[in-house]
Amino acid sequence: MVFAFLLVAAVTAGSTATLTYREARNSVLQASQDLAVSSFREVVSESAYDLPPGPDDLKGRLEGFARRGKPRHWHVFAEYGTTVRESSGTSPVSTVITDELRRQAADRPTGSFQRVVKNGVPYLVIAMPMVLRMGLLDTGLDTGMVLYAVVPLEEEGAQVDALVTAARNGAVPGLAIALIPALLAARSVLRPVRELRRAALSMGSGRLDTRIAVRGGDELSDLARTFNDTAAELERSVTGLREAEARARRFASDVSHELRTPLAGMLAVTELLDEDAATAGLDPDTARAVRLISTETEKLAVLVEDLMEISRFDARAAELNTDEVDVAETIRRTLAIRHWTGRVGTELPDGIRARLDPRRFDVVMANLVGNALRHGGDPVTVTLRRGTADDGSPLLVAEVTDGGPGIRPEVLPYVFDRFFKADQARTRSAGSGLGLAITSENVALHGGTIRAANAPGGRGAVFTVALPLDGGPRGRAPEEET
Fold it and tell me: Where does the protein end up (predicted)?
């Protein structure tokens, strides 16, 4: 804004100085030019009685013309055809006289003039044809001789340069003076804008109680009032949403906790019913009903446990109990406990040790492998390797791949959302719908990252887990070591 203000002031001062300079320059040059032209015409007219002069006194007459010059002495040159060249000085020919002026002198009996700059010096060159007079009578006949008066305009040029210097010296203090109101105006206009920017940044960082002091009644004050009203409304809305979210979390946690006790009893009963269905010789319909009750009760128990786990993450109550473990051995134990050893291929090099929470890492690998077995296709493979983060720190990288159809591109951004189903038509599934969400939370708790993608060629899904080997949080996805 200061720049714009100074630019306007500079343009205004420059335009005024330019117009003033042009008018003053024209006035100075025009005055000298008119005086010189009229004086030379008068001198030539008065001296024409005895013309054409004899060759002996031509130089003397030219010197006399030069002495009568106004506003200062002239350099007078005479030309007659191509035979006569004479001057009032030492050189009979002037380099300032142009061919254009010679043509004008031949066409205009009353004379002509031209401004010429030679070697940086301005000159006024006046051409005056000599007219033949007989006694007191002017015959109007051209004698063929042309007189040229060359008038240096150095003094006028100095006056013009002085005008330029004065204009420049006057413009610089003017701009310096204009800077003061520019700064004052910019401060009065930009201060509310800066306050609005700081307030917006403060709100963006989560401080919804941010407000702006309102001063005056101009448009910027109206903007500040609008900002304050919007911030107040946003604060009320966000507070309501946070309270509703907190109530929902407490509800899920309370319900899950209350369901654990009756579910424990139901699981004990269903185990007995399963044994009776297998040994007591129940009829087929009753046996199917017993197995259905047992299966659904187990699903409900898994859902309750997952809800309890998610509630702990939401309440920031989840903790890491880390220990230095052999990662390959930990993964083999995860597969063996769930009887997946024969169904899952592995590439697990020994010697990779890391500080992990063994129970949570077991949940991560079990959820990823179980998801691949249920929703992917053979072959399912678990790969372990070392990697490197963007900052050069070492990473533990575990990948679970399958040979299924892969994940649709529009589904990829949502696979770690809670209760998200890739197939919306499938209302029931073997899992709780929280497995990948819990997996993501456990990875984040370790300070790592998890990424879902499709294998090259679009055949099979790839889940990549990257954890810091030293147990600290790291940044983005890893790059494989070479």
Answer: Cell membrane
Instruction: Write down the CATH superfamily of domain 323-480.
Output: Histidine kinase-like ATPase, C-terminal domain (3.30.565.10)
Looking at residue 321, the DSSP 8-state letter turns out to be -
Which residue type occupies 137? L
Instruction: Name the nearest CA neighbour of 156 among 219, 49, 71.
Output: 71
- CATH, range 219-314: 1.10.287
d(CA 102, CA 144): 12
With 70 as the cut, is the pLDDT of residue 23 above it? no
Q: Tell me the β-bridge partners of 85.
A: 79
Helix (H, G, I), strand (E, B) or coil at 293: helix
Distance CA 322, CA 359 (A): 9
Buried b (16+ CB within 10 A) or exposed e, 121-159: ebbbbbbbbbbbbeeeeeeeeeeebbbbbbbbbeebbee
What does the alpha-carbon distance between residue 243 and residue 233 come to, in Å, rounded to a whole number? 15
- Which range has highest mean pLDDT (52-61, 107-116, 234-243, 330-339)? 330-339
Cα(124)–Cα(74) distance, integer angstroms: 10
Angle at the Cα of 251 from the Cα atoms of 247 and 253, rounded to 5 degrees = 120
**How far is 346 from 331, CA to CA, in rounded Å?**
9
Q: Which residues contact 85 (CB under 8 A, 6 or more apart)?
A: 77, 78, 79, 92, 93
Other Cβ atoms within 10 Å of 284 Cβ, number: 8
* Band of pLDDT at residue 476, cut at 50, 70 and 90: very low
Strand partners, 449: 466
Global pTM? 0.49
CA dihedral 400, 402, 405, 409 (to 10 degrees): 10
Taking only the tens place, the pLDDT of each residue in 248-280 is: 667 666 766 677 677 777 777 777 777 766 666
For residues 118 and 330, the model is more confident at 330
Neighbouring residues of 267: CB distance < 8 A, sequence distance ≥ 6: 297, 298, 301
Q: Could you tell me where in the chain the CATH 1.10.287 domains are found?
A: 219-314
Q: What share of the chain is helix, strand, coil (3-state, %, to 5)?
A: 50, 20, 30
Residues of the chain with CATH 3.30.565.10: 323-480
